[in-house]
Amino acid sequence: MDLNISTLAERPELEGPMWDMRHLWPEFMMHDPVGWANVGQIVRRFPEYVLVATDTDGKFVARGFAVPFRMDLDGRRALPDRGWDEVLLWAFSDLRQGREPDTVSAIEITVDTDFLGRGVSHRMLTAMRANAAARGFAELVAPVRPNGKHLEPGASLHEYAFRTRASDGLPHDPWLRVHVRAGGVIGAVAPASMTVPGSVGQWRKWTGLPFDTDGPVEVGGALVPVHCEASRGYAVYVEPNVWVRHRVR
Predict the structure, then answer these.
(1) Residues 6+ apart with CB under 8 A from 97
(2) Do residues 55 and 9 lie in contact, with contact meaning Cβ atoms separated by under 8 Å?
(3) String of b and e for 183-218 (b: at least 16 CB within 10 Å)?
(4) Ramachandran region of residue 216, left (φ > 0), alpha (ψ -120 to 50) or beta?
(5) What is the per-residue pLDDT across 5-18, written as a single tens digit (0 to 9) for each?
(6) How many CA atoms does the CB half-sphere of 171 hold within 13 Å?
(7) Which pTM does this prediction carry?
């Protein structure tokens, strides 16, 4: 399909449709405190790193968020174990401190549900790589949320991330496979990439599950079980992601 992919800086009129698009993100994913506080600011502070895509009829198709940050800095120089959350905090800290970024991190690529299964995610990733290169960066990194891992919540991501298909040696996971086909290299696991805390009442509202027993709770869409402390009234989800590195220049 033909796509018109540009930055939000170039097409600011698409901000509304970008937020209104239909997606498959589980409700609990909307309640990560770091994401809640920072993702909306990406469109204000980094619109040149926000990609928007429309079809030939002007219908909104997909969005992609990325942020620039400085990797070559004391206390960093390695991709963080806290993955998605940490790189967002780094990017906005660097912005406040006036630090010159040297790396770009993908934050999200989301495709409208009407356009799933048409290779749009690959096109958006390719465009994100090209956008980073056009802005003078040599590397795009990505804390990838493997989109098949929720089917195996009990499996170790340290094993799952490096699982390959016998037929072609490509990753078993579909989204990791897209990254590798685009030129990415799978690196380390970020074991605490996103943390979603909440009361048991909130988790009941988000998932429709009882959350009335202490211990692990498997939740639809979660990559690993949620840890529930029902007797203490709270539950916490700690999601691991996989760092993928893309050389873009």
Answers:
(1) none
(2) no
(3) ebebbbbbebbbebebebebbeebbebebeeeeebe
(4) beta
(5) 999 999 999 999 99
(6) 28
(7) 0.96
